[in-house]
Amino acid sequence: MKKILIVDDEPIILRALSRALAHESFEILTAPDGKAGLKSIETHAPDLVLLDILMPHLSGLDVLEKIRKSNNTVPVILMTAYGDTHMEQTAKRLNVTAYLKKPFNQIETVIDLVKRTLQSA
Predict the structure, then answer these.
(1) Contact 35, 79 (CB under 8 A)
(2) Rounded alpha-carbon distances, angstroms, from residue 114 to 12, 85, 109
(3) Can you tell me the distance from the alpha carbon of 36 to that of 31, in angstroms, rounded to the nearest whole number?
């Protein structure tokens, strides 16, 4: 069973994504912030990370940079409601797998992206 780590400071997003992806038979790990997300990555070695960009204390881009220093192969899908060109360029430089804009029109879009990403990884 593939492990997916969802890192987001919005409890509603964590619950919605967790339920939808668990229904697809993935093992789901969640973290409410970047620091907890990094600890979970070290402890559980997820197969894919869904990572919010704008979080308090440690941004998703900071978390992505730390992930890439220790594991350059784990797929990371960045999620944000507030994207800009600089943010997207930084994400690409850090080898982000995909970039998702919030709010999600349909949760199925996220599920399909996760499945495609894991199949190609």
Answers:
(1) no
(2) 19, 23, 9
(3) 5
Backbone angles phi, psi at 83, to 5 degrees: -85, 150
Q: What single-letter amino acid sits at 18?
A: S
One-letter amino acid for residue 85 of the chain: T
**What average pLDDT does the chain have?**
90
pTM metric for this prediction: 0.92
pLDDT at 52: 95
Q: Provide the token pair at 117.
A: 């990403």
pLDDT (average), residues 47-65: 93
Cβ contact 17:6 at 8 Å: yes
Provide the token pair at 116.
Answer: 């495609």
- Helices then strands, each counted (H, E), the chain: 5, 5
Distance in angstroms (rounded) separating the CA atoms of residues 20 and 23: 5
Dig out the tokens for 45 from the structure. 């070695």
Q: Work out the pLDDT band at 84, boundaries 50, 70, 90.
A: low
CATH of domain 3-116: 3.40.50.2300
